[in-house]
């Protein structure tokens, strides 16, 4: 279980009981709930406006927002997090984030709900990394991304991926609504990282190795894409899983290397176009 350890997060009635929240919100369609929890405690920003600290539980107008969490000053070693959240009318959006020393050891989930037609009850499960195994109430139901029609009521949703710490949340589904759970998994603690750090420049980016004359060496000035569970590797705008996807690279493709941050390579994926890829599925090559 060491490579597939599971953190269980039970979201009880008081946290995610949408039916009760709808009664609190009343018939007004211009009310949405946002509940945010984090470890460590953090300041909460919505569209770059400071709105409070975690634990946070307030109502806002429905819409799409950029949510940002910045750890308190005495926990400044924890990396900030930001991502898009959608606040739907008369329901609650729940965000939990465990902020680690780097993006790859941070984790969390975003749970949202939206009304659907046809009277069905659905659950959609997404994850980073992709292709994580999904268990619903202990039964294997496939891999992410996954959309299922299920019965109303309480359900335990678990995602696991080799080399990552699995996570479980308990949600309450309601007829004519779809619950969406977006997991972010942290790398498991038994993953072996390089013992010798690569020299970095003042900006914190990894510099290319130098030859005997002090000039940058050609060794490792390319990145080759390895096999991935999805059959491709996402290129993102920034070195974070919450950044937007700008392209995809197939296994075996070799692209020019630009710089490196913890868990990420910056590459030139097209002539004149740069982006970030996860170093988990890529390696420096000549």
TrEMBL record:
<dbReference type="InterPro" id="IPR013229">
    <property type="entry name" value="PEGA"/>
</dbReference>
<dbReference type="Pfam" id="PF08239">
    <property type="entry name" value="SH3_3"/>
</dbReference>
<feature type="domain" description="SH3b">
    <location>
        <begin position="217"/>
        <end position="286"/>
    </location>
</feature>
<protein>
    <submittedName>
        <fullName>WD40-domain containing protein</fullName>
    </submittedName>
</protein>
<dbReference type="InterPro" id="IPR003646">
    <property type="entry name" value="SH3-like_bac-type"/>
</dbReference>
<feature type="region of interest" description="Disordered">
    <location>
        <begin position="196"/>
        <end position="221"/>
    </location>
</feature>
<dbReference type="Pfam" id="PF08308">
    <property type="entry name" value="PEGA"/>
</dbReference>
């Amino acid at each position: 279980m060491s490579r597939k350890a599971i953190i269980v997060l039970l979201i009880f009635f008081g946290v995610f009981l949408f039916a009760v929240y709808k009664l609190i919100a009343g018939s007004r369609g211009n009310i949405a709930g946002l509940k945010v929890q984090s470890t460590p405690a953090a300041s909460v920003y919505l569209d770059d406006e400071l709105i409070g600290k975690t634990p946070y539980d307030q109502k806002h107008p429905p819409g799409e927002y950029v949510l940002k969490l910045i750890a308190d000053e005495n926990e400044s070693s924890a990396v900030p997090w930001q991502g898009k959240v959608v606040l739907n009318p008369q329901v609650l959006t729940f965000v939990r984030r465990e902020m680690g020393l780097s993006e790859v050891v941070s984790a969390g989930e975003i749970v949202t709900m939206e009304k659907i037609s046809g009277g069905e009850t659905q659950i959609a499960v997404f994850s980073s990394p992709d292709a994580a195994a999904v268990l619903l109430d202990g039964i294997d139901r496939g891999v992410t991304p996954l959309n299922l029609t299920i019965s109303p009521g309480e359900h335990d949703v678990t995602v696991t991926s080799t080399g990552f710490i699995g996570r479980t949340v308990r949600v309450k589904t309601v007829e004519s609504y779809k619950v969406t759970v977006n997991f972010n998994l942290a790398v498991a603690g038994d993953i072996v990282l390089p013992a010798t750090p690569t020299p970095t420049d003042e900006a914190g980016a990894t510099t290319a190795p130098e030859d005997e004359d002090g000039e940058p060496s050609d060794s490792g000035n390319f990145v080759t894409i390895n096999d991935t569970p999805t059959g491709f590797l996402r290129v993102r705008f920034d070195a974070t899983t919450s950044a937007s996807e700008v392209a995809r690279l197939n296994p075996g493709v070799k692209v020019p290397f630009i710089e490196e941050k913890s868990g990420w390579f910056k590459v030139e994926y097209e002539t004149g176009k740069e982006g970030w890829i996860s170093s988990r599925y890529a390696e420096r090559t000549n």
